[in-house]
From TrEMBL, chain A:
GO terms for cellular component: plasma membrane. InterPro entries: MetI-like, MetI-like_sf, UgpAE/MalFG_permease. It is found in: Cell membrane. PROSITE patterns: ABC_TM1 (PS50928). The chain crosses the membrane at residues 6-29, 54-73, 114-135, 147-167, 204-226, 256-281, 305-328. Keywords: Cell membrane, Membrane, Transmembrane, Transmembrane helix, Transport. Belongs to the binding-protein-dependent transport system permease family. Residues 110-326 form the ABC transmembrane type-1 domain. Pfam families: BPD_transp_1. It is a multi-pass membrane protein. GO terms for biological process: transmembrane transport. This is Maltose ABC transporter membrane protein /trehalose ABC transporter membrane protein /sucrose ABC transporter membrane protein.
Automatic annotation (TrEMBL), chain B:
CDD domains: TM_PBP2. It comes from Yoonia maricola. PANTHER family: ABC TRANSPORTER PERMEASE PROTEIN MG189-RELATED-RELATED, OSMOPROTECTIVE COMPOUNDS UPTAKE PERMEASE PROTEIN GGTD. The chain crosses the membrane at residues 12-35, 184-206, 212-234, 246-265, 294-312, 352-371. This is Maltose ABC transporter membrane protein /trehalose ABC transporter membrane protein /sucrose ABC transporter membrane protein.
């Protein structure tokens, strides 16, 4: 069947099914199961209202349970198993983990991921804060913000192509078409460099892509937070003779600290899961491996589900502190 | 009031200049790709994209037309070849200077008749027209070489887009992948919205035991990496017969998009005025009516924000498509996957790469600029408390 047609039918079935479910189940509850008439009308209405929330929640809970909650446990289980020929599994304890930690490529991925986690959120939040502050009172600030925000819409793969063009190196005797090598040679570099093939430093050239994408996100949110700062606090500081830097670092930053933390953790999560950029630009060669790409390698190239799941659990483990912190905050806020 | 910028012109200038630099830094990467997508492969390798916007001065070596085929007998043993040097060169430009030897480039001005010895002359005009004249011996055999110093105007072409999108013989074209991406994205955007809206209403405005815990769980699920879901769900899809295909990828995107959808919509719905909902209840409206007639229309901004997020995310996704959609036949490849393939096979063909990448970037960019307001609102609802 034509995929477009299939898509159209899916939309109709999906949307129709959802509407039908919600409408039908609601009708069934009110008109069949607990009719709001007769001697028990009051009790029936109460009962129906107890069940209704679950009716509304059911599809979402099913999808969440199946697609997000169940996999966490299934992956945990797989990480302790070894897949044998013939769709059989053997329990191997922590064997997958010990084998993984003995692999230099895994340690490289772990080191790089930590490096990404340190650099990207800090740089993106920092640039975002800078952009938010600089454009704050500018007449053309909104246009500037739009442009810094724009990479948000660009896919990691698209950004990978964009930055590959920037890092492109051509032989020394012909014109350089990568702007980085062009600038490097213009400002006294001796020979064009293959930027993505210089171990260790190439990690930073990959990180630049994610920083470029995430800065806009940080800027938008921090810009709103900066605008939310009460004017009086800044005015009072000016009257007291504070210089602009003191106002920024001692008055404004402390007041938006909670927002900075939210931005920082959100970008941290995105960084932890980074896959497309490395996959498209170096595929983990030249010591640029990261956990998500390592996991993909293990799962779909080496077909080693045990080690693949074990590395996925490492990613989960690294997310867990943020998860706990987010849940704690959400609960605190609701009370 | 304007503490950072101050009132001093110098500070205002410094501020403006630093923002210009910042904007340039963020704009130029994309601009480079866009400009490259309108240049031919030869142009891209000859000079950086930043020089494409200005007339380029370049030296090149061209031969005049073959004398044995083109010469005209002038009588008295004199022969002549007439033509335009840019014919067949594939471009046109303005001649600055020219020469007949690689050692003396730019020896002659345009319009000057160069004496090549023994009465052989060559005259070259600024527009490339030339007359080459001499005796039988001179105007035969190999054609005369000329070294040109030309200024070519900025030259852009739509040929790359034509090739990438509409060329039937191009097996690496983007047209199919474009429609595949669209087929993935539309159901994967619409279905989670509907499911999430009902759930968000229940979590925002209906009172039932366990509500707070559910909200906490959803906040937790927001950050669960979808990497964990790959193998268990692929096994599940294979076990229940969905396998790799559109249905699988729609379901996966729905599942992965739901926590953010529910979270955003609930946060928005909770903020709706309590009076409206209570008045409606007093007037005898059921929850279902309140939801469809009041909450849903009022929540349009939040629905739009999530729709944009989900659209961008599914359009730009690579991993979920790789795992749940693209099978060995490659018939269902999406644009991101196609570009990764091209990076491998056509790594140096920047005209193809840049154009293919821009085809995939163009739609999200258009959506971004058209709906930026909702995107910003959604981000703020999701992050600032």
């Amino acid at each position: 069947m034509n995929p477009a047609l299939q898509g159209l039918i899916t939309i109709i079935i999906g949307v129709g099914g959802c509407v039908g479910y919600f409408y039908g189940a609601n009708l069934f509850l009110d008109k069949v199961l607990f009719r709001a008439e007769g001697p028990n009308a009051g009790r029936n209405i109460n009962r129906a209202n107890q069940i209704r929330p679950w009716l509304f929640l059911m599809p979402a809970l099913l999808a969440l349970g199946l697609y997000l909650a169940y996999p966490v446990f299934a992956t945990l289980r797989l990480s302790f198993l070894e897949r044998l020929p013939g769709n059989e599994y053997a329990f191997v304890g922590f064997d997958n983990y010990t084998r993984m930690f003995a692999e230099p490529k895994f340690m490289e991925a772990l080191r790089n991921n930590v490096l990404w986690l340190v650099v990207v959120p800090a740089a993106a939040t920092g640039f975002g804060l800078l952009a938010a502050q600089l454009t704050d009172r500018l007449s053309w600030g909104n246009i500037a913000k739009s442009i810094v925000f724009m990479p948000m819409a660009i896919s990691f793969v698209g950004a990978a192509v964009i930055f590959k063009l920037i890092y492109e190196a051509r032989p020394e005797d012909v014109a350089q078409i990568g702007i980085l090598n062009h600038l490097y040679l213009t400002f006294g570099g001796d020979a064009p460099r293959q930027w993505l093939q210089i171990p260790f430093w190439n990690n930073f050239f990959l990180m630049a892509v994610l920083i470029w994408i995430q800065t806009g996100f940080a800027m938008v949110i921090l810009s709103a937070a900066l605008r939310g700062i009460p004017e009086e606090t800044v005015e009072a500081a000016i009257i007291d003779g504070a210089n602009p830097f003191q106002i920024f670092f001692k008055i404004k930053i402390p007041q938006i600290m909670s927002t900075i933390v939210v931005v920082w953790t959100t970008i941290t999560i995105a960084t932890l899961k980074v896959f497309d950029i490395v996959f498209a630009m170096t595929n983990g060669q030249w010591e640029t491996q990261v956990l998500a790409n390592y996991m993909y390698d293990k799962l779909f190239r080496a077909n080693d589900w045990g080690m693949g799941s074990a590395s996925a659990m490492i990613i989960m483990l690294m997310v867990t502190p943020i998860l706990v912190w987010n849940v704690y905050n959400a609960r605190k806020e609701m009370q | 009031m304007d503490a950072m910028a101050g009132r001093k012109p110098a500070v205002v200038w410094a501020l403006n200049i630093s923002v210009v630099l910042l904007v340039a830094l963020w704009l130029f990467p994309t601009l480079g790709l866009l400009i490259s997508s309108f240049r031919t492969g030869d142009q891209i390798t000859a000079s950086g994209w930043w020089s494409a916007l200005f007339p380029a001065e370049q030296t090149m070596q061209i031969r005049v037309a073959d004398p044995d085929d083109n010469r005209v007998d002038l009588g008295n043993g004199r022969f002549m070849v007439e033509g335009n040097i840019f014919d067949g060169a594939g471009f046109a430009g303005e001649l600055n200077a020219w020469g007949t030897s690689s050692r003396r480039l730019g020896e002659f001005e345009p319009g000057v008749a160069a004496d090549l010895g023994d009465g052989e002359t060559l005259t070259l005009q600024a527009d490339g027209a030339y007359i080459w004249e001499g005796n039988d011996d001179q105007i035969s055999g190999r054609a005369q070489r000329v070294f040109l110093d030309v200024v070519t105007p900025p030259d852009f072409t739509l040929e790359n887009y034509n090739f990438v999108l509409f060329d039937e013989n191009n097996s690496e074209g983007m047209a199919k992948a474009f429609f595949n991406t669209l087929t993935v994205v539309i159901p994967a955007t619409i279905i989670p919205i509907l499911i999430a809206a009902f759930a968000a209403y229940a979590l925002a405005w209906m009172d039932f035991p366990g509500r707070a815990i559910l909200i906490a769980i959803i906040v937790g699920l927001l950050v669960v990496p979808l990497q964990l879901a790959l193998i268990p769900l692929l096994s599940l899809h294979n076990a229940i017969g969905i396998g790799k295909g559109y249905l699988g990828v729609w379901l996966a995107h729905t599942g992965f998009g739901l926590p953010l959808a529910i979270y955003l919509l609930r946060n928005y719905m909770v903020g709706l005025p309590r009076d409206i909902i209570e008045n409606a209840k007093v007037d005898g409206a059921t929850d279902f009516q309140i939801f469809t007639k009041i909450i849903l229309p009022l929540s349009f901004p939040a629905l739009a924000s999530f729709a944009i997020f989900q659209f961008l995310w599914t359009w730009n996704d690579l991993l979920v498509a790789l795992v749940f959609l693209i099978d060995a036949s490659g018939q269902t490849t999406v644009m991101t996957k196609q570009i990764v393939e091209l990076l491998g096979t056509r790594g140096g063909d920047w005209e193809i790469l840049a154009t293919s990448a821009f085809v995939s970037i163009a739609v999200p960019l258009a959506v971004f600029f058209a709906m930026q307001k909702y995107l910003v609102r959604g981000l703020l609802a999701g992050s600032v408390k």
